[in-house]
Amino acid sequence: MTNVFERLAKVSRSTVERVHGKDVTIFPLSAKDPNARSKLSATDEPYLTSACFFENTQMENDSKAQPVTGMGRTLHRAAQRLASIRLIEGKPLVAGFMLRREEDGALFTIGQFDPDGLGTVMATLSVAQSLPEA
Question: What is the pLDDT of residues 66-99, one digit of tens each?
Fold first, then answer.
């Protein structure tokens, strides 16, 4: 029998995903040569999943993720973008992959992520300009 908190987390995540989730496409990249530019993977196809987007506006609580300068203030620092991405079994997800939000076509690069063990990951995103070529 699973822990009651794990079941509650799973139910709440799926509810939030159904209400606030956006359709996204994950674009796997291949980086066989570390000195070459990344390009779209020839073996792994892009796939559709869903993600909930968050923007962390409480900078004072993120001192580890956002180093301070000078007198302990962050200057000209953008708010951190996060997404809770639903994992698809059998599909790869690696830091560096690209993510496109289908609603508005916004592109992001997945910087790092932390799996929760319940079928989703919390990923840090950075804005991307365009998809690399195949």
Answer: 555 555 555 555 667 888 899 999 999 998 899 9
Question: Which residue in the block uniquely carries the two structure tokens 């592109």?
Answer: 107
What are the phi and psi torsion angles at 92 (to 5°)? -75, 150
- Helix, strand or coil for residue 127? strand
Contact 115, 121 (CB under 8 A): yes
- 85-102 as b/e, with b when 16 or more CB fall inside 10 Å? bbbeeeeebeeebbbbbe
- What the block records as the tokens of 87 is 């994992």
Q: Measuring CA to CA, how many Å separate 5 from each of 1, 8, 15, 123, 126?
A: 12, 5, 15, 22, 31
- pLDDT, tens digit, for every residue of 28-78? 988 677 777 788 888 889 999 999 888 766 655 555 555 555 555 555 556
Which residue has tokens 């962390």? 56
**Among 82, 87, 96, 81, which residue's Cα sits nearest to residue 120?**
87
